[in-house]
Amino acid sequence: MNKLFYPAIFQVEEEGGYSVFFPDIEGCNTQGETVEETYDMAFDALGLTLSYLQDNNLTIPKPSKPQDIQLDNNQYVVVIQFDMLEYLKKNESRAVKKTLSIPSWLNEAAMKQNINFSQVLQEALMNKMNI
Questions:
Q1: HEC string of the chain?
Q2: pLDDT per position as a tens digit, 105-128
Q3: Which domains, from first to last, does the chain contain?
Q4: φ and ψ of 10, to 5 deg
Q5: Which of 28, 51, 75, 96 could form a disulfide with 22 if both were Cys (CB 3.0 to 4.6 A apart)?
Q6: Rounded to 5 degrees, what angle do the CA atoms 30, 89, 39 make?
Q7: 17 — alpha (psi -120 to 50), left (phi > 0) or beta?
Q8: Could you give the CA distance from residue 50 to residue 92 in angstroms, rounded to a whole number?
Q9: pLDDT tens figures, 67-90
């Protein structure tokens, strides 16, 4: 999944603040007091929803074109840029245990040099995937 650009509808509330929803993603909505806070909340809501869909092998809806969205007088469209990899780097830091095998001589040599196996594996994987 590369970068996605989802239109969000920001609605100015009579009592102050904003509510926001995504016309392409049912149930993905949030609110905030300022435009900046509302944008951040919208980004987080979008990330939670899309990562849930991905984790459960559900279809991720295609974003609609902002110009095709019908608005009420107190609404406007804000496009939210979303990159799943960047979102997961920021929000998903839980460790996953992996079992692997290396030759015993390599293990001994690395241990003598106090090499952190987890760090080396992470660096190698990111290098291999050009991340």
A1: CCCEEEEEEEEECCCCCEEEECCCCCCCEEEECCHHHHHHHHHHHHHHHHHHHHHCCCCCCCCCCHHHCCCCCCEEEEEEEECHHHHHHHHCCCCCCCCCCCCHHHHHHHHHCCCCHHHHHHHHHHHHCCC
A2: 998 998 899 988 888 888 888 888
A3: 4-91 (3.30.160.250), 95-131 (no CATH)
A4: -95, 130
A5: 28
A6: 25
A7: left
A8: 13
A9: 999 999 999 999 999 888 888 777
The alpha carbon dihedral of 37, 12, 69, 61 has a sign of positive
Tokens of 9: 């509808």
Q: Side-chain half-sphere of 57: how many Cα atoms within 13 Å?
A: 0
Looking at residue 93, its pLDDT comes to 62
Are the C-beta atoms of residues 31 and 19 closer than 8 Å to each other? yes
